[in-house]
Amino acid sequence: MENNHIDQQFKEASKHSEEPTVFPGFDKVWEKVEEKLDQKKEKKKIIPVWFPYGIAASLIVGLGALYFLNKKETAEPVKPLIVETKPSIEKTHIDTHIAKIDEITKKNIQKEKNKVHTSVERVITYINPVPEPLREPNLSNIPSPPPAIEHHMETSDGVKNIEEVVMTGYGIKREVATTSSSVSTVSEMLSGTVPGVTITKPGKDTNIRIRGMSTINGSTEQPLVVVNGIPTTIDGLKEIHPERIKGVTVLKPEESSALYGSKAANGVIVVKTKHLRKAEKERLEELYNKNLKEAEKKPVEKEKKFPKAGQLTAGEVNDFSKWEYWKDIAAPSLDQYKKTWKFYPDRRVSVQLTNKNKKPVIGEKIKLLDDKKNVIWEAVSDNLGNAELWINPIEVELSDSKNYYLSDASGQIISNTVNEFKNGQNLIVLDKPCLEKRKLDLAFVVDATGSMGDEITYLQSELLDVLRKVESNLENYEIRYGSVFYRDKGDEYITRRFDFSDKAEDLIKFIKQQRAAGGGDTPEAVVEALQVSIDELEWSQGNSTKIMFLILDAPPHQSEENIQKLYDKIKTAARKGITIIPLAASDTNKETEYLMRTFALLTNGTYTFLTNDSGIGNNHIKPTIDSYEVEKLNSLLLRLILQRATLPECTKGISNENINKKMETEIDRQSDPKTVIFPNPTKGMIKIRTTYKIEELYIYDVAGKIIMRKENLEEGKNTIDMTPYPQGIYLVRVRNNKNWETFKVIKN
Q: Per the record's keyword annotation, is Cell division included, yes or no (predicted)?
């Protein structure tokens, strides 16, 4: 072919180099050029003498530049490579190009020998102990690139791949070991990859918030952004391209306030970037100063003032302190309540669990089975080792079983003979250790409709006081706090929740921000509130005390569907070991009182209510009971919490002295008892000496729950065996005619 002399000239030029110069793919490309030239020759077209030299020079320049560009350690696509073919190129220019390309080639070969492959990664510092990796971008919608062209180089070890190059219509992209990303903003980079960060509308118009109290309270305030030590705003963060960022650290409000003060109340995003230009720094500072000026213009909301705690008065009705239930409600009214709500807990199976050392077995899951081994009720033993189970507590679910069994959580039968409570407790000894530590989950579910407006600020004040006192009384306990405020359908919200946190101050902030509004009709969204509080709050999974105060003044919406939902939620609460303690506010009617008392019985709780003694709020209907003791609401709530949360000593001594208020008052007022009980303390056997016949004798636990009953004991000396019961404080009440005497007995 006529153009062979070009190839010869190129080879002559390469002889002057120290190593043979081989351009990747040169032979294939040159064959294509020759083919084109031959085709032109066959068409008998006249090719100017300069044309082959121009083609060769262009190819040499292009391939040399290609080889050189491939050595750049970057993943960014380069601009389109444009090669111009000029009409006149002298031979001296060609020689100059060849020499230059030869020099570049030798340098690249040397670099290839000494090359150390490094990977480029974006580093994000997480607030979590175990960092989560950045989420890989979705590549499913990206078209596959054309097959890569393999290039080789000759070395002393033989022929090997230089690197893989993907040819695109816009240029050349070198594939390196890097964290690939198609994001265009920092918010897109953080979206879904940084725990604790909530991002809405990732992109230019975006909101970034760090989860914590600000998000719980519905705040729209943005976190502080610090870029290379310069405070700025989210707008400043938006102007930084992700590829310029070296690392990101996210600090939650409680961690950032110590470092950055009050301006970090909504958390901090700390960003480290590559070198910032002076103009960029000034822009970040400008945005921050602008934000400060706008904040100064906003009206400052005054902190809500609460009344002094300790003003509301309350009482307690513990239906477990009664031998027979519902005798204090008139039959016609009771029949109406049963017909309306279907609830009627009457057949109780009470279980007392102890270990071989007479310590209560706490947090043990117990199942009540029928004769077909179907589970009909589940419960968890409390801090006194007591579990309460029920047969047919609702009319729509009836069991005709002749025999019942008790099993543990695994289904293993622990008792083949089950007594209903009227025939005595089921005393079971298990081979379990004494529990020395237990978590406490404490939740407040509050009706926040307009009808609560007369008392809600006082209730908030009492709750805040209780939280502080719980912290001081249970210093060595792990305590978590949660809350649900609810209204009704059609209001601003139906439920608003604060999930469990071990920081009481966070719940205090949440409670302070709630207001009473909405409602209108008498029933409220009680069903929805129970669904959220029982199913959606993150109750502890392990062995823990779980207490939920349900504060309300109105019943749920009544329907067959809602009745079934209520029953399902109450049954779930019992299975999880959640004790429900209702607190009835002003204007609570008798029907609601009945329903709340059933909730308390079915979950091993007690019923509480506000009274008129404080003079605060609307009228409070007295409960249907013969007598009760009035006490300060904050003291009552604290006592009920401590009764259920305090663990017994695993060695010697009695730790739980939070006695039922009514019985404690009876003991204090007792002046000249006619009955003598000894020995006290006792290891199990107690003797009772009287000068009269005892018509009834009851033994209660520290919370006021009946655990034993005796009738018609002759005057003189009688012996009661308490050996099977766990160590602790017990209350003994004896009756002669209409006179009651109450005594505190310590069992070691």
A: no
Run of H or E residues at 549: strand 544-552
The values of phi and psi at residue 150, to 5°, are -85, 135
φ/ψ bin of 360: left (φ > 0), alpha (ψ from -120 to 50), beta (otherwise): beta
Residue 73 maps to a domain: yes
Domain boundary among 295, 328, 356: 295
pLDDT score, position 286: 84
Q: Rg of the chain's alpha carbons, rounded to an integer?
A: 41
Look up residue 299 and give its amino acid.
P
Cβ-Cβ contacts under 8 Å for 147 (sequence gap 6 or more):
none
- What own/partner pairs with CB < 8 Å and gap ≥ 24 does 48-57 have? 50/87, 50/88, 50/89, 52/3, 52/6, 53/6, 53/89, 53/91, 53/94, 54/85, 54/86, 54/87, 54/89, 55/85, 56/6, 56/10, 56/94, 57/89, 57/93, 57/94, 57/97
Lowest-pLDDT range of 83-97, 222-236, 492-506: 83-97
User: Using an 8 Å Cβ cutoff, are 690 and 673 in contact?
Assistant: no
Domain endpoint, select from 114, 133, 154 = 114
List, for residues 689-724, the tens digit of each pLDDT value: 998 899 999 999 999 999 999 999 998 999 999 999
Measure the CA–CA gap between 556 and 721, rounded to whole angstroms: 45
Closest CA to 471 of 481, 462, 461: 481
| Rounded distance between C-alpha atoms, residue 554 and residue 82, angstroms | 79
pLDDT of the residue at 216: 40
Amino acid present at 554: A
Q: How many residues does the chain have?
A: 748
Q: Which residues contact 495 (CB under 8 A, 6 or more apart)?
A: 484, 485, 486, 487, 525, 528, 529, 532
Does residue 612 sit in the same domain as residue 485? yes
Note whether residue 413 is domain-resident.
Answer: no
3-state secondary structure of 484: strand
The edge-to-edge listing of strands for the beta sheet with 739-747 is: 706-713, 694-700, 728-736, 739-747
Kind and range of the H or E run holding 487: none
- On the question of pLDDT at 175 being above 70, the answer is no
Confirm if 349 and 391 have CB atoms less than 8 A apart. yes
295-351 per-position pLDDT tens digit: 666 565 555 678 899 999 999 999 999 999 999 999 999 999 999 999 999 999 999
By C-alpha distance, which of 660, 637, 635 is closest to 384?
660
Bridge-based pairing of strands 495-501 and 479-486 is antiparallel
First and final C-alpha spacing in the chain:
115
**Based on the structure, what is the number of domains in the chain?**
4
pTM of the full predicted structure? 0.63
